[in-house]
Amino acid sequence: MGTTIGIIGTGNMGSALVRGWLRAGDPGLRLLVWDKMEDAARRLLTCEAVAMPPSLEWLVQQADPLLVVVKPKDAASVLQSVAPLLRSGQKLISCMAGVDLAQLRAWTGPAPVLFRIMPNLGVELGAGAVAVSDEPGGPAADLQAVIDLVSQLGLTFAVPEDMLDAVTALAGSGPALLAVAVEALEDGAVAAGLPRGLARRLVRRTARTTACSLPSFGDSPSRLCEAVTSDDPRERSVFTRFRERGIADSYRAAIVAAARRGRELRAQAATHESAPCTLEGDAGPTTEEG
Fold first, then answer.
1. Strand partners, 158
2. Which CATH architecture has domain 173-245?
3. Overall CATH class of domain 3-161
4. According to a count of CB atoms within 10 Å of the terminal CB, is the N or C end of the chain lower?
């Protein structure tokens, strides 16, 4: 028997999830996409596996699970609008930073089985990282069903909800931090005399090689650093300068700050009030996630 996922919100992350599932090619999967901005949902209608429902109400009635991918500030209005339509045991998956399971339960009532997922944009390529959390004592079979579904998008693992802020800081913000490093290396290579195009190709190949090499050095990336620098005084001087500038400390601080921001968003979401949106999509908040 196939699975119909109802996706509410087709911004950057919602679209990445849709494309990731399409890329996985599961023939039993059907995707219903809804967004207040109809053009945002319509651009995903690239094959028969994706459809736009006539209304949000129809989507909620047809789909299990529901996946909510809206901005946290719009979460209350969207969830309170669909709450009367939710069926007992229907799975509702939130992909919203800063909105915890307790708050979701307050908005949805007792009917659905609740989950949170925190993916990164790599899901579009089937190379994402997705953390899954459920309520304590939730049905184990439903948790496994959600894990099986999102594992089509990349590395998937269950974590307690109190770890999600840290997971999001690393898996969500980490690609941007690594991109900063890649850009800096490219700029350095250009400053050292390489043409921009060649510098870019070399840096990206070096990043890929490093990612492929890390598993062979066990649990400590520092072993790779030692292998690179052990017999080369020039390389040792480069890393001495790197550490003196506190660059590694800056990366650690960035992850901690991102996790702290996640906790702040959760506190804000708990106190936010907004008007319900209409089910037909002719009024109410946009569902383009942040």
1. 132
2. Orthogonal Bundle (1.10)
3. alpha beta
4. N
